[in-house]
């Protein structure tokens, strides 16, 4: 979600959860919900190290449990109550939570995690009406969102990473957000200075996605020797031809999208559903291509896609032929 969209919806950033009596975490991405909870715990413990932490499961809730854990303790320590499973909450929890909103306990912070869906809409509406901060924990599905995530991880650590390295890291480990975050932390801990694509390749170059994009980058650049040597290395280490063809197809589609397009990188990124750095990269590749060459590459990839998925007895030959044709079609 963009900063403007967050402001319009009343949502706050999971990296900086505001202190409030009641906070809603909304969305299915458990990693972001976990980071938001950690952020809030750290803030509360900084104010009072004696913070008392309690956890409830809304899907297995018994009547009166919320009031019991929210009641003052013997020494009146501040409390943090974390409730998960709101998407499957019991009717008893729904009733108790709505009642609690009308009279929150003093010195208590209540954090509610709803992973999505329509269950408990009455409670969600009540939380909105009372002004409780809402922290969006939506899955990061687009590469643009994942690249922003990586950039922010390095920015928060006061480290620099170049655009090529960001792209390589997302390609290598971007399928799972917790893995992507762990990869960021490993590079931050184990490297010095500016993190480049060579650093990413050192740690994650063996991943299927990274290997596939290395082949695709060389092919689109017209470097047949590097493309084929990278391809043969990938195949020798067990990479399946299917993701190799998929990476090639994605790169060629991006070049085709920007081939005759005009406008700034930001403008085209919005119009074409790409990240600005993807637009810039595709434009650099497009300078090596003619419209006839792109048509030939698209046809070769369509054939290769069918062959690696069962239409040919030799999928390895199919992907090698496609890589060779694409590499030779680009203008050096």
TrEMBL record:
Question: Per UniProt, what is one GO molecular function of this protein?
Answer: DNA-directed DNA polymerase activity
Q: Which PANTHER family match?
A: DNA POLYMERASE III SUBUNIT DELTA
Protein name from the UniProt record: DNA-directed DNA polymerase
Tell me the gene name. holA
State which Enzyme Commission number(s) the record gives: 2.7.7.7
Q: What family does this chain come from, according to its entry?
A: Belongs to the DNA polymerase HolA subunit family.
| InterPro entries to which the protein is assigned, alphabetical | DNA_pol3_clamp-load_cplx_C, DNA_pol3_delta-like_C, DNA_polIII_delta, P-loop_NTPase
Which EC class is the enzyme in? transferase
Keyword Nucleotidyltransferase on entry: yes
Species this chain originates from = Arthrobacter cryoconiti
The record's section on SUPFAM superfamilies has: P-loop containing nucleoside triphosphate hydrolases (SSF52540), post-AAA+ oligomerization domain-like (SSF48019)
Q: Which residues form the DNA polymerase III delta subunit-like C-terminal domain?
A: 210-322
């Amino acid at each position: 979600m963009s900063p403007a969209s967050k402001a319009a919806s009343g949502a706050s950033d999971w990296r900086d959860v505001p202190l409030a009596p009641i906070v809603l975490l909304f969305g299915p991405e458990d990693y972001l919900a976990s980071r938001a909870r950690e952020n809030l715990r750290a803030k509360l413990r900084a104010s009072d190290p004696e913070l008392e932490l309690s956890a409830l499961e809304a899907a297995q809730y018994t009547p009166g449990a919320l009031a019991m854990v929210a009641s003052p303790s013997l020494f009146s320590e501040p409390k943090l109550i974390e409730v998960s499973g709101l998407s499957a909450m019991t009717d008893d929890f729904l009733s108790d939570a709505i009642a609690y909103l009308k009279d929150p306990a003093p010195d208590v912070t209540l954090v509610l995690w709803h992973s999505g869906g329509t269950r408990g809409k009455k409670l969600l509406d009540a939380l909105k009406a009372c002004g409780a901060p809402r922290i969006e924990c939506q899955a990061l599905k687009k590469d643009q969102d994942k690249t922003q995530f990586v950039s922010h991880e390095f920015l928060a650590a006061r480290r620099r990473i170049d655009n090529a390295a960001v792209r390589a890291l997302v390609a290598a480990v971007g399928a799972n957000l917790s893995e992507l975050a762990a990869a960021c932390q490993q590079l931050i801990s184990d490297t010095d200075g500016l993190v480049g694509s060579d650093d990413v390749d050192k740690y994650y170059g063996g991943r299927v996605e990274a290997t596939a994009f290395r082949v695709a980058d060389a092919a689109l650049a017209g470097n047949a020797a590097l493309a084929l040597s990278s391809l043969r290395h990938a195949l020798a280490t067990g990479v399946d031809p299917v993701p190799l063809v998929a990476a090639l197809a994605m790169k060629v589609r991006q070049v085709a999208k920007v081939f005759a397009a005009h406008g700034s990188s930001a403008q085209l990124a919005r119009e074409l559903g790409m990240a600005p750095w993807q637009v810039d990269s595709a434009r650099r590749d497009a300078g090596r291509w003619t419209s006839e060459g792109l048509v030939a590459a698209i046809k070769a990839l369509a054939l290769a896609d069918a062959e690696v998925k069962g239409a040919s007895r030799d999928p390895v030959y199919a992907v090698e032929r496609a890589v060779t044709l694409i590499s030779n079609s680009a203008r050096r």
